[in-house]
Design a protein that fits this description.
By secondary structure, the protein is α+β, with helices and mostly antiparallel strands. The chain has a single domain, classed as Yope Regulator, Chain: A (2-Layer Sandwich). Helices cover 37% and strands 28% of the residues. The protein contains 3 helices and 6 strands. The longest helix has 27 residues. It is elongated.
Length: 153
């Protein structure tokens, strides 16, 4: 087992007790975890030893067919807004599948504070996207919906 993975495991072990927004943190394998937040969001995390990067993903839901085109168009706009960030993208799990937010971060000289900030940043973006999806699905479907302004966290 690598030193980087051992360090990350120690940080993950400390993450739950030191973060009030973490409901539970389950280690799935030596290099993967599932974090459940206090607001019900589930974030899957996997460490890639070769690249020393932590990959994060959160399912955002499957839009109803009637709202898919508006939501997909909006999420493509979100990807364009995230182009500067390079680490975040909205994706589909498959044709007509669930939307998911995916991200990755490099693990160089990490501390518990930097890990918390990284995961909280990801969580905030995922929560915001879920709110946008719900707003679109519950709104009158007009072309202006896909041009909504997204606030950056």
């Amino acid at each position: 087992m690598s030193i980087a993975l051992i360090h990350l495991q120690e940080l993950m072990h400390s993450l739950g007790p030191s973060s009030s927004w973490v409901d539970s943190l389950i280690q799935e394998a030596s290099d993967s975890w599932t974090l459940q937040t206090s607001d019900g969001l589930s974030i899957a995390m996997t460490f890639n030893l070769e690249t020393s990067r932590l990959f994060l993903s959160a399912l955002l839901g499957q839009p109803e067919e009637a709202h898919q085109s508006a939501i997909y168009a909006t999420m493509l706009c979100v990807n364009l807004l995230y182009a500067e960030d390079h680490s975040l993208r909205v994706a589909l799990t498959g044709p007509s599948g669930e939307l998911m937010l995916i991200g990755e971060v490099s693990l160089a000289d990490w501390t518990i504070d930097s890990l918390q900030r990284c995961i909280l940043h990801f969580h905030q973006h995922a929560s915001h996207l879920m709110e946008e999806i719900h707003a679109i699905a519950g709104a009158d479907m007009t072309p202006e919906i896909s041009e909504r302004v997204f606030l950056r966290a």
